[in-house]
Design goal:
By secondary structure, the protein is an alpha+beta fold. The protein has helices at residues 2-22, 31-43, 103-120, 147-155, 171-174, and strands at 47-52, 56-62, 65-76, 124-132. It has a 4-stranded mixed sheet, with helices on both faces. Residues 143-153 and 156-175 have low confidence and may be disordered. This is Amidohydrolase.
């Protein structure tokens, strides 16, 4: 089901990636990125809360059941204060900032999952899409934004682990 749906979505997801990659913002300065994410989530019919931790965004999607069970997808919004030298057609427009850590890819992965789940809504419970500011402490003078500040209270299920992490590495992470 997903693979067939994604064939029709792929160009849109790639467009999102290229847009975000061209316009990197470092920690707690992700105003354009946060607005981009919030706008997409709203387009999918997902409830949106902005300003979490400064520039963070949380989308809440309710499925067809009423169990109250909750799962969360987390992605980072920030880029790094470094120069991109990839030569990509969609390289950073900012000579001092670059999505060298792959957070643009994380964001697009979570947005793509949100688009798919919002279209289907064939699950019991709640899905939260958490887009956090400032994951890389080197990117700002304010230091890193602890994941637990956003993730732990979002689902409030104290008997279960609060997060599982997926970290992209290799070529797909930085472009």
């Amino acid at each position: 089901m997903f693979a067939q749906w994604y064939e029709g979505q792929r160009a849109q997801s790639e467009s999102w990636l290229h847009d975000l990659h061209r316009h990197p913002e470092t920690g707690f300065e992700e105003l354009r990125t946060a607005a981009f994410v919030a706008d997409r989530l709203r387009e999918f019919g997902i409830d949106v809360t902005t300003g979490i931790g400064g520039t963070g965004v949380v989308g809440t999607l309710r499925g067809c059941g009423a169990s109250g069970r909750c799962v969360a997808f987390r992605a980072e919004l920030d880029a790094l204060p470094m120069t991109e030298r990839t030569g990509l057609a969609y390289a950073s427009d900012d000579s001092k900032r670059f999505h060298g850590c792959g957070h643009d890819g994380h964001t697009v992965t979570a947005l793509t999952a949100a688009a798919y789940l919002a279209r289907r809504r064939d699950f019991d419970g709640i899905v939260r899409f958490i887009f956090q500011p400032e994951q890389c402490p080197a990117a700002s003078s304010l230091g890193g934004f602890p994941t637990r500040v956003v993730v732990a209270p979002v689902c409030s299920v104290p008997t279960r682990p609060t997060s599982e992490n997926l970290h992209l590495s290799g070529p797909s992470a930085s472009a």
